[in-house]
Amino acid sequence: MDYAWWVYLHIVGAFAFAFGHGASALAAFRIRATRDPAQVRTLLDVSSMSLGVTYVGLLLLLIGGIAAGLAGDHFSSGWIWAAIVILVVIIIAMYAMATPFYGQLRVAAGVRAKNPKVDPNPVVDQAAIDTLAGSSRPIVLLGIGGVGLILILWLMVIKPF
């Protein structure tokens, strides 16, 4: 494939990533507005279902971006390395902040780790739901991801160095 097709794949991956991750982010913000354990479980389930699209999009984004970088001889420029570093930092920071937090929320809402769909009588910790659901964690995650995305887009479009 030539450069344009790799860029196209990169953009398709970015849209798929944004679509899947957007559903998860919207669920996270909706959780902040509810304290009902059944609604929290449903929103967490929606978020989990969207992660497949998110990860496929991220994979396509990476394959297309790396291939386009090679095909366009961009790896001799600093902007592409800066974009990669920012992406890695975003992924690590968001994973480290989101995974344990939403794991705790799942447990508080009565979602069992082994097989969450078979528990007809979930054990709910309402006080923990109230604390976790009211957390500013989704806002912090949005800030990290949003600022990082804006920086990466700036690097890709302006190519300052």
Description:
The structure is a single chain. The protein has 161 residues and is mainly alpha-helical. The chain is 78% helix and 0% strand. It is built from five helices and no strands. It has helices spanning 3-31, 37-71, 78-108, 126-133, 137-158. It starts with a helix and ends with a helix. The relative contact order is 0.15.
Give the oligomer, counting copies of the same chain as homo and different chains as hetero: single chain
Order of helices and strands: HHHHH
- Gross morphology is elongated
Helix proportion: over 70%
Number of strands: 0
Output the structural class: mainly alpha
Largest sheet: number of strands, sense, barrel closure: none
How confident overall, as mean pLDDT? 94
Q: Number of domains in the coordinates?
A: 1
Poorly predicted tracts of residues: none
The N- to C-terminal Cα distance equals 26 Å
Task: Round the Cα radius of gyration to an integer and report it.
Answer: 19 Å
* Percentage of residues in DSSP E strands: under 5%
Number of helices: 5
